[in-house]
Design a protein that fits this description.
The chain is built from eight helices and seven strands, in the order βαβαβαβαβαβαααβ. It is α/β, with parallel strands linked by helices.
Length: 250
């Protein structure tokens, strides 16, 4: 039920971290993967990583923003292997500004990339999924979807919105066979969390805040990634699944 052979996946934000790990996990399960990111060198590193593991992957370089032609991006992504079956909306930004320092521009940048782009990119891909009667859309939520962290007001607003967006997308499209869910990661070593993991005391404090007693490793996300992309999750939609070692359980 977790076999993805014959499926085509698009992963945004695939130049590093969670996006790269998701591309690798999906390819190992048999999917053909299109990876999208704005940094050419890092994108090629992702391609090399997937191919080294025996996966089939193609790269699409570009920055996602609401003033871009998302229809064109969706069309280009489909040129590699055909219509996209699985979309992982993993691209995101966290500017880590105090509430007093947030500007209209930084607010718009955060909300556009983290909340608006996932919806409008999915909207472009839904017709191809609907034609097949099957699709998977997976958004990336956060601990800040439900909790307030320092210097995270715009990011938290966007990720709180992702949880509700996921429910609304599920309501709109699940009857067409297109399931929409979200993953809410805890603390994983990525570019967005690099500053936290540079400080040993902070790293240990975060680990101690989990029920399991450690921070996440990127491959901890493999299981939920493949599960939500596959037919194993046929009757699951509109849900946000926390992968946080029990951080939110305490």
């Amino acid at each position: 039920m977790v076999e993805l052979t014959g499926k085509v996946a698009l992963v945004t934000g695939a130049t590093s971290g969670i996006g790269r790990q998701q591309a690798l996990a999906l390819s190992k399960a048999g999917a053909k993967v299109v990876v999208l990111g704005r940094r050419a060198e890092q994108l090629e590193e992702t391609v090399a990583c997937v191919r080294k593991a025996g996966g089939e992957v193609s790269a699409l370089q570009g920055a996602l923003a609401m003033d871009d032609n998302l229809a064109n991006i969706a069309s280009q992504a489909a040129e590699f292997y055909g219509d996209i079956d699985i979309l992982f909306n993993t691209a995101g930004v966290n500017l880590r500004q105090h509430a007093d320092d947030v500007t209209m521009d930084s607010w718009k940048t955060t909300l556009d990339l983290n909340l608006a782009v996932p919806f409008f990119l999915a909207q472009q891909l839904v017709p191809g999924m609907r034609k097949k009667g099957w699709g998977r859309i997976v958004n990336i939520a956060s601990l800040q979807s439900t909790r307030a962290f320092a210097n995270g007001i715009a990011y938290g607003a966007s990720k709180g919105g992702i949880s509700q967006l996921t429910r609304a997308m599920a309501e709109a499209w699940s009857a067409d066979g297109i399931n929409c869910n979200a993953i809410a990661p805890g603390f994983f070593p990525t570019e967005l969390t690099a500053r936290l993991f540079e400080d040993e005391a902070t790293t240990q404090r975060l680990a101690d805040s989990t029920a399991i007693g450690r921070n996440g490793k990127l491959d901890d996300l493999d299981g939920v990634t493949v599960f939500l992309a596959s037919s194993a999750s046929d009757y699951i939609t509109g849900q946000t699944i926390s992968v946080d070692g029990g951080f939110t359980a305490r």
